[in-house]
Amino acid sequence: MTTPPHVPPALRADVECLWDYHDMHHHARPYDVGIGLGSHDLGVAKIAVDLFHRKMYPRLVFTGANAPTTIETFPRGEAVHYREYAIEHGVPADAILIETQAKNTGQNIEFTGALLAKHQVEAQSVILMSRPYQQRRAYATCKKLWPEVDVICASHPLSLDDYVTSIGNATRVIDMLVGDTQRIDKYAELGFAIPQDVPAEVRRAYTRLVAAGYTSRLLP
Fold first, then answer.
1. How buried is 191 (Cβ within 10 angstroms: 0-12 exposed, 13-18 middle, 19+ buried)?
2. End position of a domain, from candidates 154, 169, 203
3. Which of 10, 91, 102, 197 could form a disulfide with 107 if both were Cys (CB 3.0 to 4.6 A apart)?
4. SS3 at position 63
5. Are residues 43 and 120 in the same domain?
6. Domain range holding 133?
7. Which residue from 47, 116, 54 is spatially nearest to 86, judged by alpha carbons?
8. Which helix (H) or strand (E) holds 135?
């Protein structure tokens, strides 16, 4: 029997710290548009479908091309596969727009705004749906590029352990958490996102995980 992937016990407190930090803990409420950010994680499409059926928005946009981590899972493009999943699970096709060119979070936001304007869809408020550990970075990016829009974040509601099981690789999840933590400061410095407070305990957890070798998603 294959042993399920798990977070090493010695690292659990630090990984949980980063996991909780990147969750914005927003509560979904009715907004103008839902935006599902493309990735390797089908959970984005799942939460998008759930919130649509709960009448949290009347119009849904999926945005995303492909990346090295998604080409095998979603060969026709992230947004295309998300749309297919949503339609298969009861979202009307005419309620969905797709944007198929974006290759990073900034482009997700920029290209979606242009797409909505093209279709004359008013978006004074949006719910951004992403991987759990992408919430804070997505929020900061949206507030930088689309400051006039009221934005909240959502993800498929899974515990850390359930998410690791769904991805099938604990190291990959920890690497991504560490990489997104670095990007909170780095992207603000580069002008890609608004600054976010990073508590001291988050910085310490990040530093220990880097020292433990979880560095594959770090920027130079």
1. exposed
2. 154
3. 102
4. strand
5. yes
6. 25-154
7. 47
8. helix 135-145
